[in-house]
Specification:
This protein is α/β, with parallel strands linked by helices. It contains eleven helices and twelve strands. It has a single domain, classed as TIM Barrel (Alpha-Beta Barrel). Helices cover 31% and strands 18% of the residues. Strands 7-8-9-6-5-4-3-2-1-10-11-12 form a twelve-stranded mixed β-sheet. The relative contact order is 0.16. The structure holds S-adenosylmethionine and iron/sulfur cluster. The site of iron/sulfur cluster has 13 residues, from helix 11.
């Protein structure tokens, strides 16, 4: 038996998030600038390399694999990769194969995803207003995403919506989004905007809407029951007593959740980030490319990286400036 991945703070690493592309068909204001320069193709891991990389992690005890981006469903032939990963579901080594998507391509791919063993997906959607949707995503169109949600649910996928809380933007949709999700039997999670990347003149502190405030507003209309469940991640959940609906809060800036962190992230170029909020990074592409027939160097590189996983992150808005800011874009690590 191979030894599992345990970091220096005794946390078992069982959850891998992999970004399969830096490209996207949207340009969300908090995530990308309008004129992005994307990586040349040779920098990206090929689908075969992604397969080897993920399979090696599964061999080291990773049980949950989340595919992200950029927009994962715009990567050419990505369904080949999903289909190939389903062998680890069949063997029982992988418990969950999932993805985070902007929903634009779901109409096309929902059935194939289900056939590959995907059962739950996260769809990012910040507003149900067509104009606001076009403003926040710049290139996205709401009806396409709504059709994607229909297709996903029709295919049997369980959907969770992720909404980024943006001050003065979707504050007024707190109840509309909750009711939309309740009516469609979807979970909803609000995410605090994080100080990522250099997005030009977007004022990110101005956009920051504290989830404490959001929760207080929700409590004015509903009775909130705190749920104990944690997924090893930053989300905390409440249930609305009146409707039974579950709502999650991801508050990387105001809560410390690092003690139960079970995850690492790999970028589309094969860099492993041990923490979303830190710059600690190691290269897995060289051991992967330099040894096409031998996974041992890759395994060693993964183990060495896990030993460098930091205790936690340093995001802090408390002094009205984004302390702990990291310079890369969210699309680089996939959120
Ligand atoms: N394109 C896919 C999508 O939008 O779901 C997957 C990648 S996207 C980078 C993953 C998640 O990160 C999305 O839910 C998005 O809203 C979130 N995100 C991007 N930039 C963010 C930021 N600055 N703060 C908080 N969340 C952010
Ligand atoms: Fe694309 Fe997702 Fe970033 Fe929006 S949040 S620009 S959809 S990667």
């Amino acid at each position: 038996m191979t030894a599992p991945l345990i970091d220096p703070f005794a946390r078992a690493i069982t959850y891998l998030r992999v970004s399969v592309t830096d490209r996207c068909d949207f340009r969300c204001v908090y995530c990308m600038s309008e004129n992005m320069t994307f990586l040349p193709k040779k920098e990206l891991l090929t689908l075969e390399e992604l397969d080897r990389l993920c399979s090696t992690f599964v061999g080291l005890g990773v049980e949950k694999l989340r595919i992200t981006g950029g927009e994962p469903l715009v990567r050419r032939d990505i369904m080949t990769f999903f289909r190939s990963m389903s062998r680890h579901l069949d063997s029982g080594a992988l418990k969950e194969l999932t993805l985070t998507t902007n929903g634009s391509q779901l109409e096309r791919f929902a059935k194939d995803l289900y056939a590959a063993g995907v059962r739950r997906i996260n769809v990012s959607l910040d507003t149900l207003d067509e104009d606001k949707f076009a403003r926040v995503t710049r290139w996205g169109r709401l009806p396409q995403v709504l059709r994607g949600l229909d297709a996903a649910q029709a295919a049997g996928l369980r959907v969770k919506l992720n909404a980024v809380a943006l001050k003065g933007f979707n504050e007024d949709e707190l109840f509309t989004l909750a009711e939309f999700c309740a009516a469609r039997d979807m979970d909803l999670t609000w995410i605090e905007v994080m100080p990522m990347g250099d997005l030009g003149n977007e004022n990110r502190i101005g956009q920051y809407w504290s989830l404490k405030d959001l929760r207080a507003q929700l409590a004015e209309r509903y009775t909130l029951i705190d749920l104990a469940e944690r997924s090893g991640g930053p989300a905390r959940y409440v249930q609305l007593q009146e409707t039974g609906q579950k709502i999650g809060f991801i508050t990387p800036l105001t809560h410390n959740f690092c003690e139960s962190c079970n995850r690492v992230r790999v970028t589309c170029t094969g860099e492993i980030y041990m923490c979303l909020g830190q710059e600690d990074v190691a290269d897995l592409r060289a051991p992967l490319r330099d040894h096409p027939q031998d996974d041992a160097p890759l395994e060693d590189a993964i183990r060495a990286a896990i030993l460098l996983k930091p205790k936690g992150h340093d995001f802090d808005y408390s002094r009205q400036r984004a302390d702990g800011q990291v310079s890369r874009h969210m699309s680089h690590t996939g959120g």
